[in-house]
Amino acid sequence: xALEVPLxxxxxxxxxxxxxVDPLAILPIYVRLTxxxxxxxxxRLARRVAMSATIALIISLYLGEDILRFFGxxxxxFRIAGGLLLLIMGMQLIYENTSSERSAEGSERANIxxxxxxxxxxPLLAGPGAFSTVIVYSFRSSTWEHYALMTLCLLVxxxxxxxxxxxxxxxMQRLGQTSMAVINKVLGLIIVAISVEFIATGIMQxxxxx
Length: 210
Description:
Layout: H1 7-21, H2 23-33, H3 39-71, H4 75-95, H5 112-125, H6 128-138, H7 144-166, H8 168-209
């Protein structure tokens, strides 16, 4: 099967999405919000969070172009805006003290599903940076192979998120705050590099269209 987009682009997309979604960063929040729950309930919530985030990202993959067209937004301007957003996210990851700064405080214990699923799946995992990255990469090709491979990447990321949440307490105990902070700074650097590429490409597209 001859691909219009090289496989290296999909590996770049996958790595970028892992860095942006950053399941490690939400582990402290997830563990804190689910403290005191039975193991079965924690596993159910982990599955729901992963499924909700994955479905939201897949919807943005297939409907993102239509949304941009509806609002009259050009791809170069969206690429630059997405790059700036990723730049901010990356700088925050680099300069924050601990990964637990991604906070979901202020919710009540009345409804554990809305407490855990809504803030963690959207917008902590599937947030503006993740949505903009999916939409920008979706424009690389219009073939069914392209969309199938991107969907596969998102499904694998959803599986990684589920595994991370499923083993959240054990991962937190083994890594500790210092190790997680170091990992997040490396991921932040990757996001900054990707954001620069987005912005540069958007500016070049504007220049060529002028």
